[in-house]
Every structure is written in structure tokens, then in C-alpha cells.
Specification:
mainly alpha, 12 helices, API5, Apoptosis inhibitor 5-like protein API5, apoptosis
């Protein structure tokens, strides 16, 4: 029966909105055939469904805001399955080939979401994928880690995301950094390229590290002073509205300090000519809750718990629990069956794939 329902849902996915697709995926995840002990081919099936909605076979158009929204939202939806061992190669290759080359042209809030997604997928990449995308990550890292002070505002969350990605990718393909950053890491493979002189790259990269460290420490000093002022303001605040506003400011300051601490923790080992890249969970991304030692649930997986701030964009896949899963499942089953029985839900509503844009009618938002 679960197999039958899954097939019905897959047939219905040609005509869904973003919210409907979320609902279908939540339902599929609840089925025993896709549970924690599901074999690799089942995870591959789910990832295939998500890849289809993300349009990873389509030529990318940076002006297509709908495709960008779907791509990033589907990436976050897929991350819990990457954690369980599914391959993220298709997402990574698409991002590397189509998205990063036009990164500057992306909407500002989508840039941040993309970098967060890249950071969260990086611990689960293969050595081959890591080697392919590392040059692109290093180029972006250099863009946001200036060699010298420029007077321009630094986006520390961008730097945190890229450093985190760099460490985890380089951990899997360490000798790829020899020709990118001038490191001297010996693996015994021809790709070590130890006979070539990349010392200028090393000098440049470490200068960038030192520059971002200086900026980060200066920012930490300001944030720490700001926290003391917030505490004073909280003590003097009388209305609930004022207290709530100060509380929000304190939370933002705390997150900012976590970002800065993470940056310093990740730049420190990179000054060595043979650095040890971080490939474990010792660095917890600033926007994520501290990981507890208990077994993680896919329902609260990566990308779900992101705070709903303007910086994160309005289209992240935040899901609300409760209200009885059984009721939702019955509703989904009925709707799926109805769609097949009557030749497709809402025939003639003209929605196409239903994610907005490109004549799809109802938008993703």
C-alpha cells in the first residue's frame, strides 16, 4: 500500500505548489519504506524526486527567481537525506557549473541561503565532488576575505559559510589545496603537484586570513560592548515592547559573536603550510542550534530549524509539527487518489509545475 501511495504521489508532482510539495515530502518521509533503516535505493528515490522539482536538468537563468527559490528550497529539503548517505553530487555539480559563476547576480537574500546550503551539505560530499567544487569555493572565499582593508563592509556570515565549506571539502581532498592555496600536503599522488612553486598563492591566502582575523576581532570588540549596552537597556526598559526589541538585539549580537568565534576557530589552523582541515563536528554553524548527542530525527533535519529572519529569506522550508500526523496522511492519500481518479487535480487551472514563474500561475510564495 505504501508503494502504491508513493507511486500516486509521484504522478501528482507535475502539478504542485511549493507548499504542496513540502506536504507530500513530509508524508513520504513518514512511510516505513523510507524510514531510518531504508536501503540506499529508497533514499536515492527520494533524492530523485527532490532533484526533479529543483529542475537540475534545466539550463539555469539567473533572472528566473522562481527557479532559484525552488533550487535552494529543495537543497535544504534534501540535506537530511545527504546526512543519511544519499548522494548530493547532482546538486553540487549544478551549483558549481551554473550558480557560482553568476553568484554576484543572485538576489542578496538568495546568496546567503545558497552559501548556508553549501556549508550544510559540505560534510557529506564525496572526495571527487569536493575536488571539483573546491576551486569555486576558494574563489568566493577570496572575494569575501580581502587581502587588505578596503573600507567596505564585511559579510561575516558569508565568510563563516565559505570557511566551513572549505574545511570540510579540503578534508576530503586535501592535496587539491596545494595548487589553490599554496599548501604542501603530501598524499603520494601526482595531483600533489609538489614540484611546482605555489608559494605566492600561500602568501596571498595567509594575508587574507590575517586581514579577516583583524576585522573579526574588531567586530567582536564592538559586539561585546553592544551586549553590555543591551543589558543596561534591558534593566531600564519598562514596556514589554521595548524589552522584546532589546531581546531581539541581544539574540542578533549573540549570533554575531558565534559567527566571529567560528571564523577565528577556522582561520587559525589554515596559517600552517600543512594545515589539518576540520572534518568533524567541532565547529557548529552560528545559525544552527547546538547538536545534542541523541540520534537526530530527519523531521528536524538541516534547513528546518533555520531562524525565520529576513536574511534567511521567506522561502525556507520551515515545518510545523503537531495536529496529528494521521489526519494529514489521510488528507494526502485522499487528495492523491482524487487527483488520479479525476485526471489530475484541478485540471484546467493552468498551473503547470505550480511553483510560480515561467507561466506556472500560482507562485512559490
Amino acid at each position: 500500500m505504501e508503494r502504491h501511495i508513493t507511486d500516486l504521489i509521484k504522478k501528482s508532482l507535475g502539478d504542485v505548489t511549493g507548499a504542496e510539495f513540502r506536504m507530500f515530502m513530509d508524508f513520504l518521509k513518514s512511510l516505513s519504506i523510507f524510514g531510518e533503516k531504508a536501503p540506499p535505493e529508497r533514499l536515492k528515490e527520494l533524492i530523485g524526486i527532490i532533484e526533479g522539482q529543483a529542475d537540475l536538468d534545466a539550463q539555469f537563468d539567473v533572472s528566473d527567481a522562481d527557479h532559484i527559490d525552488r533550487l535552494i528550497s529543495c537543497l535544504f529539503m534534501a540535506i537530511p537525506f545527504f546526512v543519511r548517505g544519499a548522494s548530493g553530487s547532482k546538486f553540487l555539480n549544478y551549483i558549481n557549473k551554473h550558480i557560482i559563476p553568476v553568484f554576484d547576480k543572485l538576489p542578496e537574500e538568495r546568496k546567503l541561503d545558497l552559501l548556508k546550503g553549501l556549508a550544510e551539505i559540505s560534510p557529506y560530499t564525496t572526495p571527487q565532488d569536493s575536488r571539483q567544487i573546491l576551486p569555486s569555493v576558494v574563489q568566493l572565499l577570496k572575494k569575501y576575505m580581502p587581502r587588505r582593508k578596503t573600507g567596505e563592509e564585511t559579510n561575516f556570515t558569508y565568510v563563516e559559510c565559505l570557511l566551513f565549506s572549505f574545511h570540510h571539502l579540503a578534508h576530503k581532498a586535501p592535496n587539491a589545496t596545494n595548487s589553490l592555496c599554496g599548501y604542501k600536503i603530501v598524499t603520494g599522488q601526482p595531483s600533489d603537484r609538489l614540484g611546482e612553486d605555489f608559494s605566492e598563492y600561500y602568501k596571498e591566502f595567509t594575508e587574507r586570513l590575517s586581514s579577516i582575523e583583524d576585522l573579526t576581532r574588531a567586530t567582536m570588540k564592538k559586539l561585546t560592548q553592544g551586549m553590555a549596552e543591551h543589558n543596561k537597556a534591558m534593566a531600564a526598559a519598562k514596556s514589554d515592547e521595548a524589552k522584546e526589541s532589546i531581546k531581539t538585539q541581544k539574540q542578533n549580537t549573540t549570533t554575531g559573536l558565534r559567527t566571529c568565534n567560528n571564523i577565528l576557530a577556522m582561520t587559525k589552523p589554515l596559517h600552517s603550510k600543512t594545515p589539518a582541515f576540520i572534518g568533524d563536528k567541532s565547529v557548529n554553524l552560528s545559525w544552527k542550534e547546538a547538536v545534542k548527542p541523541s540520534v537526530p530525527s530527519s523531521a528536524t533535519g538541516t534547513g528546518v530549524k533555520r531562524p525565520s529572519t529576513a536574511a534567511n529569506g521567506s522561502n525556507n522550508f520551515a515545518t510545523k509539527k503537531g495536529r496529528g500526523a494521521g489526519g494529514m496522511q489521510n488528507q494526502l492519500v485522499n487528495r492523491a487518489l482524487e487527483g488520479i481518479s479525476y485526471g489530475g487535480r484541478g485540471g484546467g487551472r493552468g498551473r503547470g509545475r505550480g511553483w510560480g514563474g515561467r507561466g506556472r500561475g500560482r507562485g512559490f510564495r
